[in-house]
Amino acid sequence: MAENAYLCIDIYGAIIRMKQYTLTAPERLSSTIGLPASKSISNRALIIYALSGGKSLPQNLSDCDDTEVIVKALQHMPKEIDIKAAGTAMRFMTAYLCVMKGTHIITGTERMKHRPIGVLVDALRTLGANIDYEGETGFPPLRITGRQLKGGLLEIPGNISSQYISALLMIGPMLKDGLTLRLTGEIISRPYIDLTLWTMREFGAEADWTAVDTITVSHKPYQNRDYFIESDWSGASYWYEILALIDDRESEVRLTGLMDGSKQGDSVTRYLFSLLGVKTIFETKGEGIPQTITIKKNGRCVPRLEYDFVNSPDLAQTFVVVCAAKNIPFHFTGLSTLKIKETDRIEALKKEMRKLGYVIHDFNDSELKWDGERCEPSYEEGIDTYEDHRMALAFAPYALKIGQLKINHPQVVSKSYPRYWDDLVKAGFQIEEGQKE
């Protein structure tokens, strides 16, 4: 069945109708929003906590689906681990299982079984891991038998998903000879690699760049410690989008738990939105302290936006929607990983933006461009979300542009921001629940 379908058949042959939310936008915003904890930091801290032999889970963990499947797997360690649609969990847990005693099968949703993992499996096998494919070669599910790995020098392409690289780095301290990871060619998503190294060092690891293309991790066990997770800058980006799109100049939103100087790659949100008419005010001037920020409109926008999202690809959908809505032509590059996310985000964006009346063009499987070309809108049936949380999260604020918008299969936000719809209602949006016919 197509991923954007909203009628499905259960095991008894009955038709199940999927949810649809109708969002009605407010005219003014003044609200304080408790953002979810960072999914990226939570997932890294969980794997490192487990490798350290920790007894107490990190504090303020994300409550999203991706994090919960890791918590469940680490707490119960069943023979078959189902990580559902969590790509991060698949990659991180695959590496983790390679260095832990026991044999496990790791699997996921039907979509997950078509998301490539061969690069990571090949790299782990080079280090001595015992991994077998249970289905199609290059894709989950995997059968893994953990054991002591020797480690040493490993070369992999730098233009693969940073989650592969992070998965390898996090098990580095457990390898007999440590790990020297040499990245060949272009290195993408470097902030996510740096976030992994920073989190590793927070737990006592010796891990850092030793050359422009090389990372060295020493064989030094992690130290168990109490750890607090900061809020998620990716989640904050949707509230910046809302402020950018609302007409009322007095509107403001306060977002809790964010850090100035955060290692999260998506913290670039504050700088990019300063170009689109939104300013950021921190509660204090101290870096590295979770605090409340206030975002307000400043009214000044660039006439055109060109940006390379190679280091923050998860923000691409947000900026495609907001720039088009504000009639700001754009050319975005560095989007090669979008085609292997929860869905092919490049194709999904082109199709759903056309519903809103915008003709987006793609180039080289890594670029999106809009020069103002329009078409007749046709959004009456709602925005399809393709089992992709960021499609729902990024398109919902467009209700501010047209007053009312329908989102199909809205529950997909549970993957990263489960309370999103509740927070929108708190901020003044009206949401009517219905069914997709």
Automatic annotation (TrEMBL):
Phosphoenolpyruvate binds at K39, G87, R115, Q163, R345, R390, K415. InterPro entries: Enolpyruvate_Tfrase_dom (IPR001986), Enolpyruvate_Tfrase_sf (IPR036968), EPSP_synthase (IPR006264), EPSP_synthase_CS (IPR023193), RNA3'P_cycl/enolpyr_Trfase_a/b (IPR013792). Pfam families: EPSP_synthase (PF00275). Keywords: Amino-acid biosynthesis, Aromatic amino acid biosynthesis, Cytoplasm, Transferase. Residues 24-78, 81-424 form the Enolpyruvate transferase domain. The keyword Protease does not apply. GO terms for molecular function: 3-phosphoshikimate 1-carboxyvinyltransferase activity. The active site is at D314. Pathway: Metabolic intermediate biosynthesis; chorismate biosynthesis; chorismate from D-erythrose 4-phosphate and phosphoenolpyruvate: step 6/7. It is an enzyme of class 2 (transferase). Its EC number is 2.5.1.19. It is found in: Cytoplasm. The keyword Cytoplasm applies. It catalyses: 3-phosphoshikimate + phosphoenolpyruvate = 5-O-(1-carboxyvinyl)-3-phosphoshikimate + phosphate. CDD domains: EPSP_synthase. 3-phosphoshikimate binds at K39, S40, R44, S161, S162, Q163, S189, D314, K341. GO terms for cellular component: cytoplasm. SUPFAM superfamilies: EPT/RTPC-like. One of its GO terms (biological process) is amino acid biosynthetic process. Catalyzes the transfer of the enolpyruvyl moiety of phosphoenolpyruvate (PEP) to the 5-hydroxyl of shikimate-3-phosphate (S3P) to produce enolpyruvyl shikimate-3-phosphate and inorganic phosphate. Belongs to the EPSP synthase family. Monomer. This is 3-phosphoshikimate 1-carboxyvinyltransferase. It comes from Prevotella aff. ruminicola Tc2-24.
